[in-house]
Design a protein that fits this description.
Number of helices: 20
Structural class: mainly alpha
Number of domains: 3
Shape: elongated
Low-confidence stretches: 5-11, 344-350
Order of helices and strands: HHHHHHHHHHHHHHHHHHHH
Helix content: over 70%
């Protein structure tokens, strides 16, 4: 397996980038069969009815090996999608997944705080005597430095924004805007250096322990590769989707600028309280932003899938589509009838926030417009159908698509790879379409809610304005009655009229 070279802005020429891109493609070609072979070996070792230290060491070695291969494969797949991206926003959507991959690998392999179940600690318990002390110290120094530099509360938040979105979409927007290609690729390069050292150790110990890592005949997957082909004649879908990303991001930028205007006015003119008065209105804007995120993320996943050159590369990008639909819908509506959700209810009376249930639907149903009410009920019924769709509400597949290790020292990778190879682009695209068909109607209703909230705020503001106007006019009348100087009266009238004009503005 070739080591992926350092990918920073220093290597910015087109020729150098093409070389890196091709090298990563070569890595995919070599890593994929090795990954399948190692998983097969892992299953065969587990099937051996024997409990010995040698067997445990072999299993640990194989697990570390397929951890490294899978993570490396996932990274180069994401980086290649970022390299192919045309716009900065499309690039940032792919860059956000790099932090997720690295965080999940660190958690599974080395753990955070005192994780006794992490694979590296388990491996040290089983095979610590076999490890060269120099190699062990080097790995632990690298990982300690990496954690100190890159693993903090901010990285955890960024990981959560990338997968789960947030109740405040402005946090997601800020995170995406601040993403740096140079910073992210530098972090990944440092992490790949750790994987490289792990691979050297595994190869050396496997040789010493006579463990055949890559010599098993793997199952022929050519059937699935021939079956799971999504046609895109003349790249028509790819082109339309890329145009959509540009359009949606322009809309997103425009909305965020408008959203921030009250804060700017408060700061520049010293008018306090404007943001708080507009908060009900701004909450409806949050809903609109989330709807746009779903659109953009789906578009970028589709682009990455359609532009991939290797089968496993396409499938890994396809799994992002699955996660986006699940997580996007979960934040929009939720899965109230799922078993997993019922467990959450049992633990916490406050169920997760829902843009539709907590903001949009209550407002629409409290309006005096029967047409809006009927449309809201219709949309709610359709959203419930999606929530009950077991192909979308598949928490097990979602867990495997994001995490590397289960609890109690079990790995997702062997099970996930079985599912990933067979994952149908038609099924995943259909899931996305079920949601996408509803989003325009929800956006229209979101606009209606915005209008309702605006009208409510305007009524309250008009009442306050009228009260202040009456007070000003009353004060003016009292002063004019007590003052007989015409020049003073004219001055008071002029000042009062200016205040009234400003109030009207």
């Amino acid at each position: 397996m070739k080591r992926t070279c350092n990918m920073t802005k220093r290597l910015a020429s087109k020729e150098q980038l093409n070389t890196i891109y091709k090298s990563m493609g070569d890595n995919i070609s070599s890593m994929y069969p090795s990954l399948l072979s190692s998983i097969k070996l892992y299953k065969e070792l587990n099937a051996i009815n024997e409990d010995s230290n040698r067997k445990n060491i072999w299993i640990d070695l194989v697990r570390i090996y397929y951890f490294v291969l899978f993570c490396h494969l996932d990274i180069v797949t994401t980086l290649r999608a970022e390299f192919r991206a045309i716009t900065i926003w499309e690039k940032r959507i792919h860059l956000k997944y790099l932090n997720v991959i690295v965080t999940e690998m660190i958690k599974a392999m080395f753990g955070f705080s005192d994780d006794k179940q992490c694979l590296w600690k388990r491996f040290n318990n089983d095979a610590g005597a076999l490890l060269n002390e120099k190699d062990k110290v080097k790995i632990e120094e690298l990982i300690t430095k990496f954690k100190e530099t890159y693993c903090n509360s901010d990285s955890k938040d960024c990981r959560n924004y990338a997968i789960h979105y947030d109740d405040d979409p402005l946090k997601v927007y800020s995170y995406l805007c601040n993403l740096s290609e140079e910073a992210e690729t530098e972090k990944v390069s440092k992490f790949l250096a750790i994987l490289h050292e792990l691979l050297l150790i595994i190869n050396k110990l496997s040789y010493e322990q006579q463990l055949p890592l890559c010599y098993l005949q793997v199952t022929d997957n050519s059937f699935w590769e021939r079956l799971n082909v999504f046609p895109d004649k003349n790249h028509a879908l790819l082109s339309r989707t890329r145009n959509s990303v540009v359009s949606y991001w322009n809309t997103l930028d425009s909305i965020v600028k408008s959203y921030n205007l009250p804060n700017i006015v408060e700061q520049q003119f010293g008018i306090e309280g404007m943001s708080s008065q507009l908060q009900p209105l701004r909450e409806t804007i949050h809903s609109g932003l989330h709807l746009l995120y779903i659109y953009i993320d789906i578009c970028c996943a589709v682009i990455a899938y359609l532009s991939s050159e290797h089968y496993i590369e396409r499938q890994l990008n396809l799994r992002h589509l699955n996660v986006i639909v699940y997580e996007g819908f979960k934040k929009l509506y939720g899965f109230p009838n799922s078993k997993n959700n019922q467990k959450e209810i049992g633990k916490n009376d406050n169920l997760h926030f829902s843009f539709w249930k907590d903001i949009l639907y209550p407002c629409l149903m409290s309006s005096h417009n029967d047409c809006l009410k009927n449309k809201a009920q219709e949309i709610d019924s359709q959203l419930q159908i999606i929530a009950d769709d077991s192909t979308i509400n598949d928490d097990d597949l979602r867990q495997m698509s994001v995490h590397i290790r289960e609890k109690r020292n079990k790995d997702y990778i062997p099970r996930f790879m079985d599912k990933l190879i067979k994952m149908s682009p038609f099924l995943e695209m259909n899931k996305a379409l079920k949601l996408l068909r509803l989003l325009p109607d929800i956006m229209k209703l979101n606009k209606e809610v915005t209008n309702i909230k605006y009208s409510d705020i305007k009524v309250l503001q008009d009442r306050k304005t009228e009260s202040m106007r009456n007070q000003l006019e009353g004060m003016r009348d009292l002063i004019l009655q007590s003052c007989k100087d015409k020049s003073v009266q004219e001055s008071i009238n002029e000042s009062t009229n200016k205040l009234l004009s400003l109030l009207n503005f």
